[in-house]
């Protein structure tokens, strides 16, 4: 049988229209919710923020949720609110978006990376203990792709060493671990509602916590260090008075964004169910493709399937991963990479001076990961075109 030429080698592309790796799904209800808020008189600092916080806390099953302008701000405030700063270390993962690392550095603390697990690309819990020093104050895992890290192991180590657990749950809205939603395990759990996350506020973040004092502190810190928000002040007997009680930030979100978020939250479970259906279809389609390793799931976890990441088996192809990505683009499949290890970005390489050889699994895996399109709005026929393009490209570049 003749092997079909990929588009990058002069063949015909599998699809004529480009397929992004992710995009949001905005409904008429979402639009109406935003328009209603625009007409309500409250653009920012109004009732939708508290409503969004109550709904999200109830969804997760956490006592408190604090809404913010981004997950990056949330992560940064989480570190600060726990009193972690200069001279302190936070153990985290290098296989993440740089926001996780920035949050630690902007609080004045030092990030310390573990290696990762080959199968899930999550922080390797077995590598945490040897990275602990007298300066370590917290562990900050990131639930890669919405598949929760081994939280039993992380929480056990944290308990034994008196460390806080701050989770980067930017991928994990709706994910579960041992029967409970992500947002109810660690000390502070940070979510993103950026445009391409599992539910969106356009931009937005939230922190969930079981600690009422921390929740109050976070609300004060997010708005200049002023304990009352503008909405409450408007109904106070002395609305002209405010007091700054802490060195705060301008990290608050808006009613417009929370109105969109409230409307999106109603569909989060439906979105995640479609994501799961597509992941099952991908896994099934790639089961017999020798060049591909499909993603693993942590025992006891129900992932939220934020991204679908395959690994190309080392030594199985005549070309490198970047050539495969270029070939998929030529087929009009906009596959991507999540992520370049943080220590490999020029800024962190120059300032942290870490030895990549200290993260052997991360180094190896980072060379062979490919993120395939996955989002609820795509169709089964979109998915089939991805499978066809991947199989076509890999067949062509397979080592004979
Ligand atoms: C998107 C993302 C963030 C940042 O979220 P924002 O809301 O855009 O600030 C942090 N960590 C990870 C892993 C992400 O994917």
Q: How would you explain this protein's 3D organization?
A:
36% of the residues lie in helices and 12% in strands. It has 400 residues and is of the alpha/beta class. The strands form 3 sheets. A 7-stranded mixed sheet has the order 1-9-8-5-4-2-3, with helices on both faces. A 3-stranded antiparallel sheet has the order 7-6-11, with no helix packed on it. Strands 10-12-13 form a 3-stranded antiparallel sheet, with no helix packed on it. Helix 2 runs parallel beside helix 8, helix 3 packs parallel to helix 4 and helix 9 packs parallel to helix 13. The model has no long low-confidence stretch (mean pLDDT 96). Pyridoxal-5'-phosphate (PLP) binds next to helix 3 and helix 4.
